[in-house]
Amino acid sequence: MQSCDRFIGAPKSCKLPAMNDIGSDRSVIAELSRMIQLARRVVVFTGAGISTESGIPDFRSPNGIWTKYTPIYFQDFMASADARRETWRRKILFDKDLDGARPNRGHRAVAELVRRGKTQAVITQNVDGLHQSAGVPDEQVIELHGNATYATCLVCATRHDLAPIKAAFAADGTLPHCRFCGGIVKTATVSFGQPMPEDAMRRAQDETLACDLFIVAGSSLVVFPAAGFPALAKENGARLVIINRDRTELDAAADLVLNREIGPTLGAAVAAD
Questions:
Q1: Residue pLDDT, tens place only, 104-141
Q2: Is 160 tagged catalytic?
Q3: Predicted structure pTM score
Q4: Looking at residue 58, what is its pLDDT?
Q5: Where are the domains of the chain?
Q6: CATH number, domain 1-56+104-145+199-273
Q7: Contact between residue 261 and residue 103 where contact means Cβ atoms under 8 Å apart
Q8: What is the C-alpha end-to-end distance of the chain, expressed in Å?
Q9: What are phi and psi of 124, to 5 degrees?
Q10: CA-to-CA distance for 142 and 125, rounded, in angstroms?
Q11: Superfamily name and number for 63-100+151-189
């Protein structure tokens, strides 16, 4: 399991106040665009805010999913068939929003940065696969919390399509088991109490340390250890931009803070429709 000791706390080197979202739209967007143009290597770190603009509900806002449902912990999922059954019931319910979601202008702007070679990796807290749908190659998306568009066996790691699993469950409550080894099958997301994926965390740290511009797009920066990457980038000398509708605890350390919607802001800065 990835240690989060290095990530917790504000970076000591971040003493300068951020350039806040003031002035005309044109001047603010021009500043963001200039920072992107001058950067050698840009990392984009995305959170729920970019996907809510595609109609996907978030989990932690005052009206988010966790205000309506108690999280099911990984240990309970493994130990109880009832917990697994409730998890799959919720999965089918939540997928009504996920299945109809399409990438928005923010996702397309991120994909354009990748296409231009400015961005080598997108680090995301999201599990919806919309970066890939927008055109970012799968190998350039680092999914810290997994992916909700498919399932995996927890024993042999075989990938399973969701359609037959959901159809069988909807028909008679059948719980999925691996067709190869018989192991428990779960959506490929990181549940509460489940270790963070070591490979994704390592890759995210490597990319963070290699960039000279780190853009946060739609994250409240409250979920650790993932939320520690922006602070690590700043501490390592990169410039930090935060685009989020609400304030974050790292705003004072950022070079530019834009409290506005992701799609119109990033889309305009990158000139992506």
A1: 999 999 999 999 999 999 999 999 999 999 999 999 99
A2: no
A3: 0.88
A4: 74
A5: 1-56+104-145+199-273, 63-100+151-189
A6: 3.40.50.1220
A7: no
A8: 40
A9: -130, 145
A10: 9
A11: SIR2/SIRT2 'Small Domain' (3.30.1600.10)
